[in-house]
Write a structure and sequence with these properties.
Radius of gyration: 28 Å
Bound molecules: 5'-O-[(L-methionyl)-sulphamoyl]adenosine
Number of helices: 23
Distance between the termini: 66 Å
Helix content: 40-55%
Number of strands: 29
């Protein structure tokens, strides 16, 4: 292993073994796999880690419920994750389990080091514990004094002797890290949430438990056998124990991680606890922690009890693994929430993949077969089509920064521009007429142009769709590797002469949903507008003045109106009407609101402004994105304007 080569360490969270994988888990893993594949193509020495999180009360109880030993149960479920990733050809370099002996040794070493550094002390803990989230919550955060603010399940009061980590001592250092490293947490709006939380004050963290057994024991020198480690301390340490921390340090030169991919639900653990632990251990902090949004089904959290869980294997088997990968990464802006539907998946396959990419390959196969016996030759491409080449290279140049900023949906959007250039060139230059008019050289150059564009696009698309792009590369007789990445995709090289191999269409058109059993839940959910119509109609039956339905004050107060501050605003690609906003309404997390105001407001005009939000609407789905509220606006023949508080008000202030 040469030391001169830049290293890239990419991690997924490690998955709990209390349940089998669903599309949320697949999403995290597929993004990480895409980053790892890109990083290898870009010539970085890459290490990609995934694995399973197997300790804690939740797992112990899940095993007990099934009448199995905890270890046997953990072995079984861990294997289902590993098998799924193998089936999905996930290019991980190591699959770690928190029950691995090396990992447990590393966690003990970390405990000893933190203790030696004066960051761990013993005390008594009294608090409310949610087993499902494996988290303590202060009473003030509980819903109705009892229920977990994260998952809604009942919490239990725990009073026990515990070791504490001095998290409060790291407040200033954490804030300095957030301020000094702009992209340490991506998207940046998520970083603001973390900063607000830390500024609110940090309490020391209970990091051991005595009420159950299934965990890593404290290091022998602590001489305190009744304690096991808190699962989050155990689990977070996996990112360095996987590299040999606490044992042989074999791969510690990969640390710090380049990207640690997580879902937004576990941001606090990764953006607060994890860097504080690392500081205590004297280890450098990760370069980026990237938090993606949440996938729902019809606007609802997926859960076995609701029977609305989408099985990633079923979807990939029915629609094609690479198509599924493309869909997940293209459909939702990174950081935003998305709703799974077969209709949206089919639209992406038929339109982006079938019409734009697949047809282009068919066209070049047809063209070269008909006029040139399948031969493609590029020597005159620049002579006739320099403008098209320039346009393509300009788009390709924009890609890498987008990926490194985790704007994967925009990466894919930009990557589609060269395909438009190619399709447009065929329509404009009409190869059949070129041939008719004896312009054979020009027609062959067009063949070369289209093939080169397909090659360049498939290299850059490879990290997202590895199998499909390998097929395209085989048809065009070149290899996707670090060399072609450098010369053809990042550079301006075209393809050496070759004879095209005909292949079957890559994206046969899909006319109707292929998975009938998951379809019923996919029916378009009633829009918020329908609900409004219905309630107006109902009140009309009872009360009406001059055509306006009258309601009682209690009905009015059923609507929760709040002042919101727009903390992030962006355009929804391909939509003339929609903006995607993150609006702070004084809750733990901002609301994602999709607003049909783009005709009147640019995204930057909305940023940092205040709005009035209808905060208790059922979530609705617009262009595949969940909208968790509605903005008040007034519209007449002159256009639309937002209704805003006259003076700045704290986000979350009730209106009424
Ligand atoms: N074991 C912890 C992580 C420890 S990391 C040191 C855990 N496990 S989990 O299995 O519950 O979730 C793992 C990942 O899956 C998280 O990033 C989470 O955000 C992601 N997803 C689980 N359900 C999801 C959706 N419905 N949608 C998108 N991702 C979600 O948390």
């Amino acid at each position: 292993m040469s030391n001169s080569c830049e290293k890239a360490y990419i991690t997924t969270p490690i998955y709990y073994v209390n349940d089998i994988a669903h599309i949320g888990h697949a999403y995290t893993t597929i993004i990480a796999d895409t980053l790892a594949r890109y990083s290898r193509l870009a010539g970085l020495e890459t290490f990609f880690l995934t694995g399973t999180d197997e300790h804690g009360q939740k797992i112990e109880e899940a095993a007990k419920k099934r009448g199995e030993s905890t270890q046997a149960y953990a072995d079984k479920i861990s294997a289902t994750f590993k098998d799924l990733w193998d089936d999905f050809d996930i290019s991980y370099d190591k699959f770690i389990r928190t029950t691995d002996a090396d990992h447990m040794k590393g966690v003990q070493k970390a405990f000893s080091t933190m203790h030696a550094n004066g960051d761990i002390y013993k005390d008594t803990y009294k608090g409310h514990y949610c087993i499902s989230c494996e988290t303590f919550f202060p009473e003030i955060q509980l819903v109705d004094g009892e229920f977990c603010p994260e998952c809604g399940k009942s919490t239990s009061v725990v009073e026990e002797e515990s070791y504490f980590f001095k998290l409060s001592a790291y407040e200033d250092k954490l804030l300095a890290w957030y301020n000094d490293t702009p992209d340490c947490i991506l998207p940046r709006s998520k970083k603001n949430e973390v900063i607000r939380f830390v500024e609110g004050g940090l309490q020391d963290l209970s990091i051991t438990r005595t009420s159950f057994d299934w965990g890593v024991k404290l290091p022998a020198e602590m001489n305190d056998p009744k304690h096991v480690m808190y699962v989050w301390l155990d689990a977070l340490m996996n990112y360095v124990t996987a590299l040999g921390y606490g044992t042989d340090d074999a791969n510690m030169d990969y640390w710090p991680a380049r990207v640690q991919l997580i879902g937004k639900d576990i941001l606090r653990f990764h953006a607060i606890y994890w860097p504080a632990f690392l500081m205590s251990l004297g280890l450098p902090l990760p370069k980026h922690i990237a938090a993606h949004g949440w996938w729902t089904r019809d606007g609802e959290k997926m859960s076995k009890s609701k029977g609305n869980v989408v099985n990633p294997k079923e979807v990939a088997d029915a629609y094609g693994l690479d198509n599924f990968r493309y869909f997940m990464l293209r459909e939702v802006p990174f950081g935003g929430d998305g709703d799974f539907s077969q209709k949206a998946l089919i639209d992406r396959i038929n339109s982006d993949l079938g019409n734009d990419l697949g047809n282009l390959l068919n066209r070049v196969i047809g063209m070269s077969g008909k006029y040139f016996d399948g031969k493609v030759e590029s020597s005159n491409v620049a002579k006739y089509y320099q403008a098209e080449l320039d346009e393509v290279h300009a788009s390709l140049d924009k890609l890498e920064p987008l990926l490194y900023e985790m704007q994967i949906h925009r990466y894919l959007e930009e990557l589609w521009r060269p395909l438009t250039v190619a399709n447009r060139a065929i329509d404009k230059y009409e190869p059949w007429n070129l041939m008719k008019n004896g312009k054979e050289e020009e027609a062959m150059a067009l063949n070369g142009l289209i093939s080169a564009i397909l090659a360049k696009v498939s290299i850059m698309l490879y990290p997202v769709m590895p199998a499909v792009c390998t097929k395209i590369a085989n048809a065009l007789h070149f290899n996707i590797n670090a060399d072609s990445f450098e010369k053809i995709a990042k550079g301006t090289e075209l393809l050496s002469p070759f004879t095209l191999t005909k292949i079957d269409p890559l994206f046969p058109r899909i006319e109707e949903p292929l998975l009938t059993q998951i379809e019923p839940a996919d029916k378009p959910s009633k829009s918020a507008g329908d609900d409004k119509k219905k309630s107006v109609a109902k009140s009309k039956e009872s009360n009406e003045t001059e055509g306006v339905a009258l309601i009682g004050i209690d009905q009015f107060f059923q609507t929760s109106l709040k002042v919101g501050t727009v903390i992030e605003a962006q355009e929804v690609p391909k939509s003339k009407k929609l903006l995607l906003l993150q609006v702070d309404v004084g809750e733990a997390e901002p609301r994602q609101i999709v607003a049909g105001i783009k005709e009147w407001y640019a995204a930057e005009d909305m940023l940092n402004t205040q709005v009035c939000v209808v905060a208790n609407l059922k979530p609705a789905k617009l262009m595949g994105m969940i909208s968790q509220g509605m903005l008040l606006a007034a519209k007449d023949e002159d256009g639309l304007c937002m209704i805003r508080p006259e003076k700045p008000k704290t986000a979350g202030t009730p209106i009424g």
